[in-house]
Amino acid sequence: MIRFTKHAPEAIEKRRIAVDWIEAALNAPASTAADPRHPERTRSYKVIAERGGRVLRVVHRPAGNDIVVIMVHFDRGARR
User: Digits of tens for pLDDT over the chain (80 positions)?
Assistant: First the structure.
């Protein structure tokens, strides 16, 4: 199950990010990387065609059988 921190829904609404895109980034990421400041967190990246090929970054961590989404945004510095 995917859960969200308090901040994540605000970012999703503000940035007009579809939950389907977040699920796609978590289930079939184009790439992943450990968060350099928080090793327990993972960054998952996904190219979103509906947004002109921009790269979505989803920062998340495991919580038992759940995935907790901490932050979601389009990454200007990510390469496709």
Answer: 999 999 899 999 999 999 999 999 999 999 999 999 999 999 999 999 999 999 999 999 999 999 999 999 998 877 65
In a domain, 38, yes or no: yes
For residue 39, give every residue at least 6 positions away whose Cβ sits within 8 Å of its Cβ, in sequence order, or none.
Answer: none
For residue 53, give its domain range: 2-74
Instruction: State how far the Cα of 53 lies from the Cα of 19, in Å rounded to an integer.
Output: 17
- Provide the token pair at 35: 């968060």
Q: Is residue 79 part of a domain?
A: no
In a domain, 80, yes or no: no
Six token digits for residue 8: 């994540």
**Full-model pTM:** 0.92
